[in-house]
Amino acid sequence: MLNSNPSRIAFSLSLTLGIIIAVSSNSWFTSWLGLELNLLSFIPIISSSFNSYSSEAALKYFLIQALGSAALLISATSMSVFLINPSLLILSALLLKTGAAPVHFWFPPIMQGVSWPQCIMLMTVQKIAPLFLLSYAIVSPITSATTIVCSAASALVGAIGGLNQTLLRKILAYSSINHMAWLLGAALISSNMLFTYLFIYSVVSSSVVLLLNSNQIFHFKQLSSIPDTKTKTLSFMVLFSLGGLPPFLGFIPKLLVINFLSSMSELLWIFILLSSSLITLFYYTRIILTALTLSSPKLKQLLTETPSLPLYILSFINFSPLLFPLMSFYQF
Questions:
Q1: Is 277 in contact with 244 (CB distance < 8 Å)?
Q2: What count of Cα atoms within 13 Å lies in the side-chain half-sphere of residue 314?
Q3: Which of 66, 193, 210, 323 is least enclosed, having the fewest CB within 10 Å?
Q4: CA 27, CA 61: separation in Å to the nearest integer?
């Protein structure tokens, strides 16, 4: 994901340290310090002097995350000075940092401005600390209701927003917003459920992004340039797994979330989540059909790489529920 540049290795280590500090701290101020360390470490990773789009994306990301951090500090002030319960303001700041609807506006443009390896980090690694802190902030009925509303909004925005997109990075951005709806549901249930969903989502989305990165595909038109049938088959598997279609790996965490939400009698919430997943499966199917049915002989001479063995292994992990069917009955 990162090259051998020593500075990038150092920034990635400090980024990991910031996540650990934010998640494991016992005060909101220390969590804020961890989030700031994570932010200041991620900015040099996504910025590049050779790409003006990545520099613009880094500036946008810094401004949005700084706004969320400022909201966290204001919440501490409201608690000590005005004696106001800051949990709702903390929740709003963390929702902004994760890119959940209705404060999702910054996420697709930034995804479009960075390269595929940075897209993986933006969709997975950078959501770890805010999501776990968000699960700690759900302490009252009003924060629970706010989480449910934002989850439903994220499901609808992520599903409808990706329908008219032809740029694959924006499609995966709206897919990530849709998965945020399920992640918020998992955060409302338990930290173990959140960890399981986030881990499986990271594996599945990484397999999708690495597959696209290996062939340098960024647009629908470039899907026809994939000459390798194996690569097309892998794209078929990983995209359906990302959409949560059984029997692939991406279906397991969604099944667990549905199981717990049904026990909580949240039927309307489940209906919105499932309906939005069907819409996301529609535009995943559109990508797959484009890759499988179209062929462009003129573009077959492009520098396309055969997927490596680690990429094959990561892609075939999406078939693990067929090998271990009892994992779908794991309880938290």
A1: yes
A2: 21
A3: 323
A4: 25
